[in-house]
């Protein structure tokens, strides 16, 4: 199972700063779903002419790769949303230092050196958190935590958040959330759903599951392969279901301060929005009224700061965009446009 994706920039020469785009998966938290999307974004970024070189890094959510943990059990439970925020915040703090490079201000200068002279501890100029679905919620929570107290990672410069199909408020009000909670209310389902699911899946070899997902659900060959491997993994379903329950029991009304979303000019280093958001027109994990109320609150609050950039799809891109190659390219182009907007604002200050 693919554990992480690392796509460094191919255009360091002539750039003035270097940034990291740190990607956080949705649920199920498997980075393999996003290979086509991140490949497309990498290609678009390498063709850019802006002042910033952007590296891309993404990894599985914690607990989704059997090889990375002991089997789940009474003494080792799967991870909930709060544990994901904790684990990924620690990981992005490490990733923000994971760069060995020549100075991006002058490619002919000597290798930048850290305290021990190795040149391997130069932090990024800034980090963009990019998340899909529950990954968007995790990104907002990480940025909120860092805004309140950055003492644990003073080298980490979290500057922007890219939120794709964000499930950040009143998740239980969505169509899928309502159905999930109804299923939990049925006799024995809360305690034994995973047992029932794994028992049914034992009837099918992985190749058959892959064929079903590709031909009956319309997933791309890559996404179908990732799904089949996840369904046959030891703990994958348990972790995904546990996460789903935690999401429904955690994500209610958004209670973040307006200053997090629309920072004043005195508290931000860029005139570009801190957050860029893309919503589906009809999203089974996001209730339309919840989305529209959130957008209206951001519109009103944005009059006092740098307004959050929010786009609602006018087409029919589905929540699980990463399961379709064409949709992955479409979303990559939208993200690339956000990067260009940030680069344009940066070019005015660098």
UniProtKB/TrEMBL annotation:
<feature type="region of interest" description="Disordered">
    <location>
        <begin position="99"/>
        <end position="121"/>
    </location>
</feature>
<dbReference type="Pfam" id="PF10230">
    <property type="entry name" value="LIDHydrolase"/>
</dbReference>
<protein>
    <recommendedName>
        <fullName>Lipid droplet-associated hydrolase</fullName>
    </recommendedName>
</protein>
<keyword id="KW-0551">Lipid droplet</keyword>
<dbReference type="GO" id="GO:0005811">
    <property type="term" value="C:lipid droplet"/>
</dbReference>
<dbReference type="InterPro" id="IPR029058">
    <property type="entry name" value="AB_hydrolase_fold"/>
</dbReference>
<dbReference type="InterPro" id="IPR019363">
    <property type="entry name" value="LDAH"/>
</dbReference>
<comment type="similarity">
    <text>Belongs to the AB hydrolase superfamily. LDAH family.</text>
</comment>
<dbReference type="GO" id="GO:0019915">
    <property type="term" value="P:lipid storage"/>
</dbReference>
<feature type="compositionally biased region" description="Acidic residues">
    <location>
        <begin position="106"/>
        <end position="118"/>
    </location>
</feature>
<dbReference type="GO" id="GO:0016298">
    <property type="term" value="F:lipase activity"/>
</dbReference>
<keyword id="KW-0378">Hydrolase</keyword>
